[in-house]
From TrEMBL:
This is SDR family NAD(P)-dependent oxidoreductase. Belongs to the short-chain dehydrogenases/reductases (SDR) family. Its EC number is 1.1.1.-. GO terms for molecular function: oxidoreductase activity. Residues 4-220 form the Ketoreductase domain. It is an enzyme of class 1 (oxidoreductase). Pfam families: adh_short_C2. Keywords: Oxidoreductase. NCBIfam families: PRK07231.1. SUPFAM superfamilies: NAD(P)-binding Rossmann-fold domains (SSF51735). It comes from the Bacteria.
């Protein structure tokens, strides 16, 4: 039987790590992508292997073309043809009003969230089109439709672009047997908030969430895993909101 080989960018922690573990349970061999934290990525890979599948870690900046090429080439050399991609790596940039955000931060958010997703999707499309099948799931955000005024409109704008990419690429690649979807999480309990100096953010905004709590990474991973699975075989071009109703 054909092996499922799935690249998860930003797999070293948070939603990406939960996705690696969940996909492993579903029988995927997993490529744990990460930027800096090799040790965390290796710990995720160890846990993936406990499910009886294969795992490799590859450090790569998804916003850098040569890194993306190395990520996929390394994955294919070690595990075989890539059949799945989860575009999860992302950054928020600083919290606050757009007027106060400097250009370097804007550039980084656009380059990681949008250019990185484009570069990885392009590389995956090249491989998958040649083989006539494949699945891509993009990790967007509920911010794409909320706009996130006062928090990070720059981040929200990149995620709206990811939604458009999802719709367009799904239509472009459908005839090639490739499905493309997105998951749009709401506020999820990960380190992404603390890394920008707001560790209590997930709990603090709970009152504005109909389900009255932040999401857990495993709850997002479950939605990603469904979109990756044959159960979603007729689902493409959709953005699945997983946000506690917000
Ligand atoms: P996180 O805990 O901060 O983890 C981010 C991951 O992305 C880490 O593995 C990090 O690698 C990796 N990464 C960052 N920049 C990268 C780059 N340039 N190249 C490659 N990898 C890079 O984030 P998270 O909360 O799990 O978020 C994951 C995704 O969900 C993001 O796209 C985010 O926008 C989206 N999301 C999150 C929330 C939320 O509330 N948490 C809500 C909606 C959407 P290393 O640290 O290993 O270097």
């Amino acid at each position: 039987m054909k092996r499922l080989v799935t690249v998860v960018t930003g797999g070293s922690r948070g939603i990406g790590a939960a996705t690696c573990l969940r996909l492993a349970e579903d029988g995927h061999d997993v490529v744990v992508g990460y930027l800096r934290d090799a040790k965390a990525a290796e710990q995720v890979a160890d846990r993936v292997r406990q499910s009886g599948v294969r795992a490799v870690c590859v450090g790569a900046d998804t916003a850098v073309e040569a890194d993306v090429e190395r990520l996929f080439a390394s994955a294919e050399r070690q595990l075989g043809p890539v059949t799945g991609l989860v575009n999860n790596a992302g950054v928020t940039g600083p919290f606050g009003r757009l007027a106060d955000v400097d250009t370097a931060d804007l550039r980084q958010v656009v380059e990681v969230n949008l250019l990185g997703t484009l570069l990885c999707s392009r590389r995956a499309a090249q491989t998958m089109t040649a083989r006539g099948n494949g699945v891509i799931v993009n990790v967007s955000s509920s911010a794409a439709t909320l706009g996130s005024p006062g928090d990070y409109v720059h981040y929200a704008a990149t995620k709206a672009a990811v939604d458009t990419l999802t719709m367009g690429l799904a239509r472009e690649l459908g005839p090639d047997g490739i499905r493309v979807n997105a998951v749009a999480p709401g506020i999820v309990d990960t380190e992404i908030h603390a890394r920008r100096g707001d560790p209590d953010r997930a709990q603090r905004v709970s009152t504005s969430i109909p389900l009255r709590r932040p999401g857990q990474p495993e709850e997002i991973a479950a939605a990603i895993a469904w979109l990756m699975s044959p159960d979603a075989s007729y689902t493409t071009g959709t953005v699945l909101r997983v946000s506690g109703g917000r």
